[in-house]
Amino acid sequence: MFQVDLNCDLGESFGAYRIGFDDEILNFVTSANIACGFHAGDPLTMRKTVRLALEKSVAIGAHPGLPDLAGFGRRNMDISPEEIYDIVIYQIGALYGFVKAEGGTMQHVKPHGALYNMAAKSPQISGAIAKAVYNVDPQLILFGLSGSELVKAGESIGLRTANEVFADRTYQQDGTLTSRRQSDALITDCKKAAEQVIRIVKEGKVLTRQKTEITIQADTVCIHGDSPHALVFARQIQELLATSGVKIRPVKNG
């Protein structure tokens, strides 16, 4: 049987600002990537999101990003591997405290936004992230773009890794995601998103924007929690995966 994890970026509200549909989406996913306060989130939001995930038996991961609240962590920064190592440890530790206090355990770490995309291409940045995760807890699973430098760095240092694919993003022929600056970066049609996911999971193939097919591995599928279509996407993708013979389960159970 085919099987895959379904994850979503959550806990991205901040102060008076509300983002996403965390409570509802947790009914359809098996892993939650919870913002740790640098690109989004705050202590109250972190605690509430951790508690919700535990109540719904959803596996919890830290979602560290660049220190860029105004840009939602989606703007590249000139930042050294040393600083990346420090901010990743800092953010994992912050979320770990809430998970521990609520009686849970942390499953994984998934970088956010620009940090994620930078790590997908840079051996230095990906190495710093992998080292930070390993030094905090070598049992944590590192999520990274399928086939990326981040996955390679995690495997090299001895971490268990999860190759991640995206339901609502388009791909370039080198396996990277289409930049959000381009008009064709996002897939807004739920049916097309689900079809892309099912093909990736079952055939290991995805059609790029250059109309070429590339090989891609799916251990976990991401749905963006800040998307206006996130709740609909989560529900429909879960249903279509199930009816297509794909079992949805957390990475830790794979």
UniProtKB/TrEMBL annotation:
User: One of this protein's Pfam families, by short name?
Assistant: LamB_YcsF
Q: Name one GO biological process term.
A: carbohydrate metabolic process
Q: What class of enzyme is it?
A: hydrolase
Q: Gene for this protein?
A: pxpA
Which GO MF terms are attached to this record?
5-oxoprolinase (ATP-hydrolyzing) activity; ATP binding
UniProt function note? Catalyzes the cleavage of 5-oxoproline to form L-glutamate coupled to the hydrolysis of ATP to ADP and inorganic phosphate.
Q: Does the keyword Nucleotide-binding apply?
A: yes
Identify its protein family: Belongs to the LamB/PxpA family.
Q: How does it assemble?
A: Forms a complex composed of PxpA, PxpB and PxpC.
Reactions it catalyzes: 5-oxo-L-proline + ATP + 2 H2O = L-glutamate + ADP + phosphate + H(+)
The name on file for this protein is 5-oxoprolinase subunit A
List the taxonomic lineage. Answer: Bacteria, Bacillati, Bacillota, Bacilli, Bacillales
Q: Does the keyword Nucleotide-binding apply?
A: yes
The EC number(s) attached to this protein equal 3.5.2.9
Per the record, the domain of life is Bacteria
- Keywords in alphabetical order, please: ATP-binding, Hydrolase, Nucleotide-binding
